[in-house]
Amino acid sequence: MTYLLGLTGGIASGKSTISQFFKSKQIPVIDADIVAREVVEPNTTGLNQIVAHFGEGILVSNGELNRKKLGSIIFEDDKKRERLNTILSDEIRENILRKISDYKKKEQPLIVLDIPLLYEGGYDKIVDRVMVCYVPKQVQLSRLMSRDSLSEVDALKRIESQMDLEEKKRLADVVIDNSGSIEETLKQVDNWLTHFS
Ligand SMILES: CC(C)(COP(=O)(O)OP(=O)(O)OC[C@H]1O[C@@H](n2cnc3c(N)ncnc32)[C@H](O)[C@@H]1O)[C@@H](O)C(=O)NCCC(=O)NCCS
Ligand SMILES: Nc1ncnc2c1ncn2[C@@H]1O[C@H](COP(=O)(O)OP(=O)(O)OP(=O)(O)O)[C@@H](O)[C@H]1O
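Above: inputs. Below: predicted complex with adenosine-5'-triphosphate.
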């Protein structure tokens, strides 16, 4: 039996910090942001559809996707973000399901699916439990601004493009509070890991 843990939170709430910890314990992590990158590599249907919709100007000179530019477009405009989601979501889902099935075949006891849009994408229905990495909005905002060198206005737009983190916290099976030190956060995760089965 494989136990599938969904790990989510808001942008810059600390999911990667937690997933690094799982990896350090040799627990496989499927990272949806990485899958989302794989489906837009050069010569993929995903990238071709993005170019068809957003134009050639969305590429950098070597033919790769200009991620910074696409990010600034879609976090400014709900319709464009929804369009991008529609273009990529099926492919992302298929890839994630394939990776889950591969790990299950290897009889991994625990797999972590790290995915920012877990609830938005309905992945709560396929995981056994959901762990939400939670921080209050002010902490999220200041960490996002400093990590991605964003203005307050731009950082807020990114936060508000996602489901409210307070709502995710309410829906969660397990809440990890990441507003303190990283050490305090990892202690909570380690405690969950000790008792999960
Ligand atoms: C817009 C893109 C090109 C920006 O790339 P960039 O390398 O700058 O950021 P990265 O991919 O690492 O994402 C950073 C964070 O932004 C947030 N985010 C990304 N896409 C979305 C989205 N469509 N809606 C809301 N939040 C999003 C997530 O919290 C994510 O962790 C990229 O995020 C993308 O292709 N997004 C669409 C695919 C998607 O929905 N990814 C989310 C995981 S399934
Ligand atoms: N407990 C903490 N104390 C201080 N800084 C932290 C803490 N946890 C994470 N950070 C920092 O906050 C930023 C966001 O964390 P992280 O990248 O883990 O978030 P994320 O949820 O994976 O983000 P994204 O949704 O964008 O992928 C990073 O710069 C990270 O180093």
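Residues 11, 32-33, 36, 67-68, 70-71, 74, 81, 84-85, 88, 92, 115-117, 161-162 surround dephospho coenzyme A (ligand 1) (CB under 6 Å).
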